[in-house]
Write a structure and sequence with these properties.
The chain is built from four helices and eight strands. α2 packs antiparallel against α4.
């Protein structure tokens, strides 16, 4: 067996392991989650966009965002995320792009536009939902 064949076999094994990890994290993602209001508020309030707001706007945003987070739930199926706040729900199709360590990357349709989202699992029952562009949609979820 030559060096090229050995490299090819190693790449195939690594690729299979990566796909298996993505499937594991995708499986872990599925289910019912609720927003951790305080942890999510800390996430949003430290963004550059929020910090750039005048203090009075920050105060009104804090009230609105905390109220929204208090009632927010997310259900992940194999290909749809359902965001629910009070009596309103919105479905967002998504696809898994990659996985590395405890991090899953997905492409999702959020508020009518494509968004790259990083999902970091702190443990099997807690994760950070971090859209690349829409900083207002950053939150921490805990499994229900």
């Amino acid at each position: 067996m030559n060096k090229l064949s050995i490299r090819f076999i190693i790449l195939c094994v690594l690729g299979a392991a990566c796909c298996a990890r993505a499937q594991d994290l995708h499986q872990q993602l599925q289910g019912n989650w609720r927003v951790d209001q305080e942890a999510s508020w800390r996430e949003v309030s430290t963004t550059e966009d929020f910090q750039a707001m005048p203090p009075e706007q920050q105060a009104s945003q804090e009230t609105m965002i905390k109220k929204m987070f208090a009632d927010m739930r997310v259900t992940f199926t194999p290909d749809i995320a359902i965001f629910s706040v009070q009596t309103t729900s919105r479905q967002s199709p998504y696809t898994v792009v990659s996985a590395e360590g405890n991090t899953l990357s997905i492409d999702a349709t959020i508020n009518g536009r494509q968004e790259q989202v990083t999902i970091c699992f702190d443990d099997p029952n807690r994760m950070s939902f971090l859209p690349k562009e829409d900083k207002e949609m950053r939150f921490i979820l805990v499994r229900e």
